[in-house]
Amino acid sequence: MRKLIALFMLAGILFAPVFAIAQDSPTVVDDEIVAEEQSFHQVVKEKFIEGDPVFMTPVLVCLILGLAVALERIITLNLSTTNTKKLLAKVEDALASGGIEAAKDVTKSTKGPVASIFTQGLMRYSEGIEMVEKSIIAYGSVEMGRLEKGLVWISLFISLAPMLGFMGTVIGMIGAFDSIEAAGDISPSLVAGGIKIALLTTVAGLIVAIILQLFYNYCVAKIDSLVNDMEDASISLVDMLVKHKLTGK
To answer: What is the pLDDT of residues 106-163, one digit of tens each?
Structure first.
């Protein structure tokens, strides 16, 4: 629930410039303003208006929501990162000094999916090493699902943004041909203006998809890194438990 509220708050903050665009948008641009060098914000605002807010707003919404989910995933994934070497050293020291219960205390006090997997494995230690391995594999799949949570929404917005852009382009082209039909003559300025406005939505959709794709690839790479750490650490934990069981006899 807290994450959902945070996402909506972040979306509201990012969406605020859209309302400013709608309120500030001039209907007539003076020659003096055009002559002056425009800032990046002014250029974006101008192109947003030229592309028709009716079609550009859904593309912008995809960007805002996609960024909100991506930022939440990036923060969560970075918080899930654990120094596995340090954790393994602590667990090994705890096993040598206090046994399984001491090792459980170490893993329970450590955040992250690796520590959670360790806790599940240590809880099944009394049932044998094979049960420990099965528990680690099963809970590892659960943790992997938690890490990948939300990626499907980023993927959806990556696919949806260009589609919305293409739809705006097609509708804009239809409008341009309707204008030609109504005028009864092909005017180069009329055709060029209509095509320019129509293509702006496609450009916007592609830009949104590219931005979200970068965040998506980062999240996937981070998840792969965490999964590799979990697998390597799990193998080390099993070896450690086998060693502890042999020396404990």
So the answer is: 888 888 888 888 888 888 888 888 888 888 888 888 888 888 888 999 999 999 999 9
Angle at 74 between CA 71 and CA 75, to 5 degrees: 85
List the chain domain ranges.
1-249
Model confidence over 224-240: pLDDT tens digits?
Answer: 999 888 888 888 888 88
Is the distance from CB of 171 to CB of 72 less than 8 angstroms?
A: no
User: Can you spell out the DSSP letters for 140-186?
Assistant: HHHHHHHHTTTHHHHHHHHHHHHHHHHHHHHHHHHHHHHHHHHHTS-
Q: CA 84, CA 75: separation in Å to the nearest integer?
A: 19
At 140, list the tokens. Answer: 């590892």
Give pTM, 2 decimals.
0.74
How far, in Å, CA of 234 to CA of 239, rounded?
Answer: 9
Buried b (16+ CB within 10 A) or exposed e, 149-168: ebbeebeebbebbbebbebb
